[in-house]
């Protein structure tokens, strides 16, 4: 792993601290709740994108089951944090099953439980599916995501079926979602820069070669898959708490599209890219939502174009695939050395070098 | 369940299976030739259905003409997509696969935006509504109609693949693309033809689907596409007879599940996915045990 200069680590810590203070101030100020919601989405999308990136960019696995893993995390948080009284009221189709009806735990433990459930499920899916070729993995995971959604619809005593869960305590503040996102990114980056991450990259480049060098391909892939699932679950839990209401339709394959688009847009191996792409995605999808709903300008009625967002993001994804397969940033990262080099006058050659060699450290 | 009921379920199962087979064929042809799983295939099924019924529903075009026109348009779209997107990406496996995913998003969203987001009733000739009565067995006319049409289409496909020049070229390309290029076969034409063929069969499946079930909505391609894929996996992906058989078996199994265990009707999709996963784990080559490539996307 590349050693980080101590000065840069301190700078990163300070920058993150300043960011969190600003976010906390924004969260407490009287800014319209709508904008805070967008900022929260931003952080949640970072988690989705980064967890997808671990598989797509590093391990070279295309897993299209993110919607299902997110659903597990979201429902875990929903079920465990709603108070027993609300549960008895809102489970209309069937009374809640005895083992969930009297449970209520605080948000953070519920979030972690959601992540663990998602990770366990990821393990159950990955262990068999990873034995197959890559193309099959995509389909099997897509199938599993759909199975999860259908199970949720068809098990009303646990998940309240198609009615979904309502009145989930909205305990995830702006500060909390961003802190979780930063912790997620940090853990994932540490993983990617560790021996495991290097092994994953080797597998991605040449599977047979990696195996010949003594890397246990299967076990490394499973580890990556489980970690990715864990964070997808955490992201789902945050989403449930931010939204306050979830139902099975939230977890259709559109949610997987989101993760894929963010990862591919930002750069398939760049955490900085994921942060930027999540910002673009969350702001753009709110912006495009305007076009989807009917607008009245004077006497002219514009009936709205549902599907606009998916179309725009689909075309974007396609163009990225055609012309910039490694995403906007590829595997470049933000680094303080690069940042300072902007202000210093250096010969262009060396500047180039700093950008490319600094493949990350703890700085975000 | 009485014997009469059982016969009804058999006919229903076969007709559902016939429609699944028509979708499976497309997956298998493309996989056989390009080693690419075309995730957008289900959406082309949906697109063909929508374009086919649109003329008849809103512009007063005779139904047969509207269907032909819809099929032609869909073939045009897939040829465009093949030429401008799949062809340049052919050497990048992962990117090609991700692009099929993007195409799937775009097709769905365009239908929602430019045609309709709501479910539509598919126009169909009246004679299909009349029930057939044999003793106590009552079958809607449309189910045997679907089976007959599908069998005719399978016959035509078998003839194309086995007896014509382009069919021979398709089989050759699926064995070794580079070698075939050296032999002077225009591989691009063969691939374009295969895409057109896959979409024509999916489109025919969509028309039959529309005549059988009341509603046809823009999201229908996701689940039916996956079912078609499951059919292809059961038969052994890459094998055309396998896809035909696999689709039939899947449809049959689904209807039998509903027939024998009506309380599990809601679990029918889960049951299909379970079948696929079991097949992939224990017999990835499908019934015909096709040799699969263990390579990353």
Strand content of chain B: under 5%
Number of helical regions of chain B: 11
Average of the residue pLDDT scores of chain B: 88
Largest sheet properties of chain A: 2 strands, antiparallel
Strand order of the largest sheet of chain B: 1-4
Indicate the overall shape of chain A.
globular
How many H/I helices of chain A? Answer: 17
Largest interface pair? A-B, 45 and 51 residues
CATH architecture of chain B: Orthogonal Bundle
Biggest β-sheet: strands ordered side by side in the sheet of chain A: 1-2
Number of strands of chain A: 2
Biggest sheet of chain B, open or closed, and with what strands and sense?
Answer: 2 strands, antiparallel
Alpha carbon gap, first and last residue of chain A: 16 Å
Written overview of the protein:
The complex is a heterodimer of chains A (364) and B (297). With 364 residues, chain A is mainly alpha-helical. Chain A has a domain at 30-253. Helix content of chain A is 70%, strand content 2%. Chain A has 17 helices and two strands. Chain A has a two-stranded antiparallel sheet with strand order 1-2. In chain A, helix 2 (33-59) packs antiparallel against helix 12, helix 6 packs antiparallel against helix 12 and helix 10 packs across helix 12 (217-243). Chain A is globular, with a radius of gyration of 21 Å. The model of chain A is unreliable at 350-364 (pLDDT under 50). Chain B has 297 residues and is mainly alpha-helical. Chain B has one domain (3-120, 150-282): Orthogonal Bundle (ABC transporter involved in vitamin B12 uptake, BtuC). Chain B is built from eleven helices and four strands, in the order H-H-H-H-E-E-E-H-H-H-H-E-H-H-H. A two-stranded antiparallel sheet of chain B has the order 1-4. In chain B, helix 1 packs antiparallel against helix 8, helix 2 (41-58) runs parallel beside helix 4 and helix 2 (41-58) crosses helix 9. Chain B is globular and about 60 Å long. The model of chain B has no long low-confidence stretch (mean pLDDT 88). Classes of the chains: A mainly alpha (364), B mainly alpha (297). At the A-B interface, helix 7, helix 13 and helix 15 of A face helix 4, helix 9 and helix 11 of B.
């Amino acid at each position: 792993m590349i050693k980080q200069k101590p000065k840069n680590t301190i700078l990163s810590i300070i920058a993150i601290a300043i960011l969190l203070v600003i976010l906390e101030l924004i969260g407490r100020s009287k800014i319209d709740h709508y904008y805070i919601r967008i900022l929260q989405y931003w952080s949640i999308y970072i988690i989705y994108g980064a967890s997808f990136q671990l598989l797509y960019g590093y391990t070279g696995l295309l897993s299209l089951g993110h919607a299902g893993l997110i659903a597990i995390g979201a429902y875990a948080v929903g079920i465990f944090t709603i108070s027993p009284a609300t549960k008895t009221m809102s489970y209309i189709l069937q009374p809640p099953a005895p083992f969930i009806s009297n449970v209520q735990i605080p948000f953070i433990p519920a979030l972690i439980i959601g992540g663990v459930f998602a990770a366990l499920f990821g393990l159950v899916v990955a262990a068999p599916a990873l034995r197959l070729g890559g193309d099959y993995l995509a389909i099997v995971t897509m199938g599993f995501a759909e199975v999860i959604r259908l199970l949720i619809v068809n098990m009303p005593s646990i998940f309240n079926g198609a009615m979904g869960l309502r009145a989930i305590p909205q305990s995830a503040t702006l500060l909390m979602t961003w802190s979780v996102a930063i912790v997620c990114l940090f853990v994932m980056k540490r993983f990617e820069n560790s021996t495991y991450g290097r092994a994953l990259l080797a597998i991605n480049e040449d599977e047979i070669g990696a195996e010949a060098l003594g890397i246990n391909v299967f076990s490394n892939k499973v580890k990556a898959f489980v970690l990715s699932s864990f964070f997808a679950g955490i992201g789902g839990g945050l989403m449930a708490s931010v939204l306050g209401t979830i139902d099975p339709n939230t977890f259709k394959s559109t949610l997987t599209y989101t993760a894929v688009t963010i990862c591919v847009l930002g750069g398939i191996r760049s955490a900085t890219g994921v942060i930027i792409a999540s910002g673009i995605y969350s702001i753009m999808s709110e912006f495009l939502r305007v076009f989807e709903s009917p607008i009245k300008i004077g006497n002219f009625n514009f009936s709205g174009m549902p599907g606009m967002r998916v179309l725009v993001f689909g075309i974007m994804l396609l163009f990225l695939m055609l012309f910039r397969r490694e995403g906007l940033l590829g595997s470049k990262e933000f680094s303080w050395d690069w940042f300072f080099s902007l202000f210093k006058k250096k010969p262009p050659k060396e500047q180039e070098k700093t950008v490319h060699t600094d493949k990350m450290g703890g700085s975000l | 369940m009485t014997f009469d009921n059982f016969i009804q379920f058999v006919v229903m199962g076969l007709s559902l299976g016939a429609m699944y087979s028509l979708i499976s064929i497309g997956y298998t042809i493309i996989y056989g030739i390009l080693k690419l799983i075309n995730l957008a295939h289900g959406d082309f099924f949906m697109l063909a259905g929508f374009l086919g019924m649109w003329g008849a529903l809103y512009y007063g075009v005779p139904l047969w003409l509207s269907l032909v026109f819809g099929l032609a348009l869909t073939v045009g779209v897939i040829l465009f997509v093949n030429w401008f997107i799949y062809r340049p990406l052919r050497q990048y496996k992962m990117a090609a696969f991700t692009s099929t995913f993007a195409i799937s998003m775009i097709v769905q969203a365009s239908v929602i935006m430019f045609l309709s987001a709501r479910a539509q009733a598919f126009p169909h000739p009246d004679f299909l509504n009349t029930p057939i009565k044999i003793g106590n067995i009552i079958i809607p006319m449309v189910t045997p109609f679907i089976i007959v049409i599908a069998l005719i289409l399978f016959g035509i496909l078998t003839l194309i693949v086995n007896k014509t020049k382009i069919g021979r070229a398709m089989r050759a390309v699926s064995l070794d693309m580079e070698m075939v290029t050296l032999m002077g076969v225009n591989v691009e034409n063969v691939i374009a033809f295969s895409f057109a063929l896959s979409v024509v069969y999916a489109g025919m499946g969509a028309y039959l689907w529309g005549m059988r079930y009341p509603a046809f909505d823009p999201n229908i391609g996701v689940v039916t596409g996956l079912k078609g894929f499951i059919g292809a996996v059961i038969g052994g992906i890459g094998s055309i007879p396998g896809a035909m058989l696999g689709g039939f078996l899947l449809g049959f199994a689904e209807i039998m599940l509903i027939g024998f265990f009506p309380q599990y009707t809601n679990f029918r999709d889960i049951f299909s996915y379970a079948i696929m996963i079991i097949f992939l784990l224990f017999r990835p080559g499908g019934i015909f045990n096709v040799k699969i490539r263990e390579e990353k996307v």
